[in-house]
Amino acid sequence: MTAAMGDREPKMRSGLVMAALLAGLLASACQSTGPTGELTTIDTAQGSEQNISSLTAVIDRNPQDPEAYNVRGSAYGRGGKYREALDDFNKAIALRPNFYQAYANRALIHRFLGDQQSALNDYNRSIQLNPSYDAAYIGRGNLYRRAGQVTLAFNDFQKAIQLDTTDARAYHNRGLIYQSQGQHAFAIEDFSSSISMSPSAPEPYNGRGLSYLAMNDEDNAFADFNTAIKLDGKVAESWANQALVYERRGEKDKAAKSYQQAVRLDPNYKPAVDGLARVKGS
Description:
2 domains, elongated, Serine Threonine Protein Phosphatase 5, Tetratricopeptide repeat, TPR_2, single chain, TPR_rpt, 15 helices, repeat
């Protein structure tokens, strides 16, 4: 009996270690922003200097057009020019005080600039002006989620989904909340919905893969992590997730290579740094 227990103890310790590692990855996943970033309605090309110049020409021809300022503000936001974006959204709202889309767009810029209260005020105003505007609920939900107000965040994502949103972020972010609560079957369902709406985004594949892994469905988890890497090979999380599967399987060399790639992409991604040290030291 004693010998049998001795045989099981290393396996039990290994299982506990893997469970702890998975918990760390789940916590990291909960910090993600969603499948296609925050400004999902604006194509990345709209942040280009050429496009901004074209939008500026439109504004020069009609400086009283709030729509033009809203579109250029979104383009500035895509290009990381947050102060310029804020100025344009301010102008759009001054010209059209009930411009609920501009309030939601300005809220996001406030959030990027670290002014969370102003962001919340703008999301609230956008929803007050149009209680059926799904993007405002999703944006406010993200604000609540990052502030640790999980119930309020869940309610906002739920509301967006009830409004028949086609925005993948609502399902992705509700999935993250389910995942954080250990409700992995619901999380997998939401990540799958997000994937159907945004099949080229790696984030929901990573999210779903982690929930599969939490349910010991290693094959489906591995397939999702591999798909995430194929979609975008520059995401450190995807490589670290793949590495964890290799590590669980005892394939330390392959795990090390994947962790190394994750660290190259993001030297500050702790699950990858810790994972690499672990497999190199074992």
